[in-house]
């Protein structure tokens, strides 16, 4: 493939997903090979993808180029979404799951059905700032490696 921008983006994502395996081991002291297939976690693969693309664009075309402006702008949106919007949605899911558990406990104690039993929501949706930073580092390193 002779498209360093696309290659940088794809390899940044793959590298971030693969790095989730040793990071999981470091945190939990057990191997989880499926960590590479899961969204969320350290490092952020969405951030790595966009920063890899942005880094490659910068190195290939320079600062004063509309391509760099576009990739930088989209990177900021992706990072804001990962660390802001989706993280807040995950925190909302935690509260809703706790509320659901409380309602289910009350249902059992009262032998009644107060509400329809909802499906448990996924709580790990977004990224912490350190996970986003990890994605930034991965994207920069891969972008530098591919274009230089």
From TrEMBL:
Keywords: Membrane, Transmembrane, Transmembrane helix
Positions of transmembrane segments: 130-147
InterPro entries associated with the record: DUF212
PANTHER family: ACID PHOSPHATASE/VANADIUM-DEPENDENT HALOPEROXIDASE-RELATED PROTEIN (PTHR31446), ACID PHOSPHATASE_VANADIUM-DEPENDENT HALOPEROXIDASE-RELATED PROTEIN (PTHR31446:SF29)
Protein name: Divergent PAP2 family protein
Native source species: Desulfosporosinus metallidurans
């Amino acid at each position: 493939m002779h498209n360093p921008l696309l290659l940088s983006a794809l390899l940044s994502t793959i590298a971030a997903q693969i790095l989730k395996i040793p990071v999981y081991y470091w945190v939990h002291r057990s191997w989880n090979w499926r960590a590479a297939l899961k969204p969320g976690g350290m490092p952020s693969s969405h951030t790595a993808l966009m920063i890899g693309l942005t880094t490659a664009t910068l190195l290939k075309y320079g600062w004063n180029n509309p391509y760099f402006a576009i990739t930088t702008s989209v990177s900021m949106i992706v990072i804001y979404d990962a660390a802001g919007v989706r993280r807040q949605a995950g925190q909302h899911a935690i509260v809703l799951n706790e509320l659901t558990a409380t309602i289910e406990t009350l249902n059992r104690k009262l032998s009644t059905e107060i509400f329809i039993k909802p499906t448990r929501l996924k709580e790990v949706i977004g990224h912490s700032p350190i996970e986003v930073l990890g994605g930034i580092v991965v994207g920069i390193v891969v972008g530098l490696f591919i274009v230089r």
